[in-house]
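ASSEMBLY PREDICTION REQUEST
Request ID: AP-0331
Submitted by: J.K., bench scientist
Number of chains: two
Total residues: 755
Priority: normal
Notes: Please return the full assembly, not individual chains.
Input sequences:
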Amino acid sequence: MPPSSAGASAAGAHVARALGTPWRAVTVFLLPAATFYVAFTAYPVFRTLWNSFHKVLPAKEEFVGLANYAELVRDEIFWRAVRNTLVWACTSPLFEVSIALVLALALYAKVPGRRFFRIAWFTPVLMSYVVVGIIWAWIYNYDWGAVNTGLRALGLNSWTRAWLGKQETALPALIFVTTWMWSGFNMVVLLAALHSLPSEVIEAAELDNCGWWGKLVHVIFPMIRPTVLNLVVLSFVGKMKIFDLVWITTKGGPLWSTETVSIYVYKRAFEWNTFDLGYPSAVASVWFVIVLGSVLTLSYVFRQREKLEY
Amino acid sequence: MMPAAEPPRIRHDDNEGDNPMISAFRPRRAFIASVFAALVALPTAALAQELTMWSHWAAEVAKRAYVEDAIKRFEASKPGVKVKITWYEKSALYAALKTALRAGQAPDVFYAEVDQTDYIDNNLLADLSTGVNWNNVEPWAKQAWTFGKGTYGFPLEASTVEVYYNTKLMADLGVTVPANGQFDQAAFLDLVKKARAKGITPMSQGVGDRPFPGAYVTHEALLKKLGMNDYDALMKGKLSWSDPRVVETLTWVKQLVDAGAFPTSFTSLKLGESHIYFHTNPGALMFQVASWYTARAFNPPDKGGQPVNFPLGIMQSPAMNGGACNNCKSLAVGGSYVVNAASPRKDLGIAFLNSFATPEMGNKWLENVLVQTGIKTDASKIAGPHAGYFKQLAKANESNTYYFGTPVQVMQGKPKEVFTQVVNSALPAGSISVDDVVKQMNAAK
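STATUS: Completed
Returned structure:
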């Protein structure tokens, strides 16, 4: 290190020592955020874990050890809810992100009417699940819903059914709704990623006579891969927590074919005519661990092993 | 009533007494403190007379009007008392109450139904045994809210399970309802088939937003087949669903389902839509529902009511072959009010509920809400355009024996959840076999 630079560094350290760490300012700046975090995140999480080992009634709490967890293992409705939620969380990201990629590429390729399509495809995500649920319950209505009306108009009467009322179609019908709702959002994010790609790399590929498929697979996709993977994780987490759409449309029926874990927690906490919060807390705690574990696993599997160079 | 606020204490420092200046100021300070205490106490005293109340029926105009009128009468009879009511829809109310009761923030009076025994188990409700004039309440309605030695709810709304039908469509089908208003199993199945053959939906129930309408046919049939005691045992998990009489009844229900008894949109059809489906569009032959049918149907047609001069008839649920009690019928106490056990204004809350316990209030409920009530009434004194309906309803119920409560009121926890999914929804939707119903219900006991 040159002497002048070493001298400057020593002087800086001296000043820092003289000033000391500004603990008061640090505290003042951190306190509001820390208070909110403790009150609305840390405490509820801790309290839920605590509740899961207790029978929690309005006037008393009784320690029950692992009894709630033992009951959970034997609870068929819980496992059905787990299966439904995992099916939803694993399939939805594939549909949403792949459709979004196609739409984003179409807009990136400057298809005619792209401004209209960008708005039209993005609009569903602006609506709340409650509104979306009501609209799609109408669309799926057996007698006068758009789906069955369309099928009848095409002479496909035998294909008509109560889409949300049959065990075999209810969950796929809801997965279709979330795909319709979220593809536009994913499309906008991917479009932004496409527009931020370095033009010289794409131009270089074109100069090398790289076809559109080769350009997509070997140039564009590797560069937007981190964005795609983030969207997959976001979609996965969103579906692991899904509640509103199911509550509005099917309430978990028919025969628990659309029961999700969030719905089951709510039913156990507020609809089963029991004040005990212990068991629903056990369900929520187990699910929290599963979601956390899944996200960490996905992040590990999807991690970028080699840095892209271009 | 809350105790009067204690005036703030004036602190005397040990050395104050020796200071003549401070001693000279004491009367003035005491005066200021008194004024301050009075100012603080005044609004507190006023608040002590404010009774808070949370109620279902936000969307039911007639019931709201009735309760709001009762509040006005009570306030007029108790000067200085104000009842502050907040209206909810049922599920939102239940969720809010669960949280508020746990946090000690619940209102003084709130809406409840007899299946909410968890309130009683956790000592959250005040005992109304004394303070309410039970002489003016039907004994069965009081009994529905009596648990152990206490009576915990005031039974405002009551209902029986009825089979309403369109008399014109019935005549068009060429079918005559028996004189006692009750078909047998085979005749009822035949009626369903005849209606379907003519393109008429036999029954307009749907389960789009309620956990019970799809189960009416089944539980009324089971009640008639088994009789009161065995039916009660079945509901409480003490009788197996594999019992041959139960299987036989479920098999008959399945035959009705397979014959197309319910609308094709059964699983998504909401309660309000079921009413419209029955009386207006597209029109159904029958609608089996609790007698609070009238709360919607007697509204003006542009507000979802049945058409003027709609040919409404009432018949009995079908008699079962070898039924132990073919004149048995479910009677449910519905919307009720309870008093919060932790309320500092408990006595005032009980006094408010007692203000409903008069024949005048009972008749007023019947005339305006057009639904049965647990308050004693005199149907002969009911006047107005629907007087004929109440006579018809009274006739339909004159020789019945009642089982108190519907399955979703009697069952709790997992059996209730499984009953809702299986018997209320899957069986009438035709998506489950009788064997599976039996297996699932037995597993949930």
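REVIEWER COMMENTS: Residues 76-108 of chain A form the longest helix (33 residues).
SIGN-OFF: pending second reviewer
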